[in-house]
Amino acid sequence: SVRSRHRGSQDAAQAADVLDHMVSALEPRMMPNLVLRENLAPGKPGGWLENCGITLAINEMLVAANPTHDPAVPWLLELFGGWPASEPAGFTRLRVKGGFEITSSYTPNGSQVSAGGVASPVLVRSLAGERCVLLDPWMGGSGTIQVVEMAVGASVVNVSWISVLSGEAVAFETDPGSSYE
Description:
The chain has a 4-stranded antiparallel β-sheet, with no helix packed on it. By secondary structure, the protein is an alpha+beta fold. It has helices at 12-26, 54-62, and strands at 63-70, 73-79, 89-96, 100-106, 123-126, 132-135, 147-149, 155-157, 160-164, 167-172, 179-180. A hairpin with a 2-residue loop joins strand 9 and strand 10.
């Protein structure tokens, strides 16, 4: 299920508790080179970060790709929906379901960010040429937004606002290999 679209409405204490729990689980297993050991017993082989599943949890907190039952909107992308509202975050070229790489940042109550805290612009690279549907991270809701295809001399892409269960989303068609901001 998709969380509420309003940045401050999430349960920030719950998100912070999740991060605290992750840190407490990782600290005893972390070696000086940042590799995680699967087994704490001396002499046992170590494991790698992907073995503990923590990366998936953090990625989903940063950008979630939520499936829908609407063929016109197969994936609804939500930025920072599970991230603690009081903590800054950012990521570069994070791959998400639907065939996209997303780059974005979040600064709580920061300057040059939207009311929702998401810095503009958000960069989207289409890997598969699917329709991109992004839950409104700017909390403008059907307001003025411009999506630009970067490789085509900054041409403006047709954007539509659609209503989804959790609020308003911006939707635009993409071409494989193209980047948008």
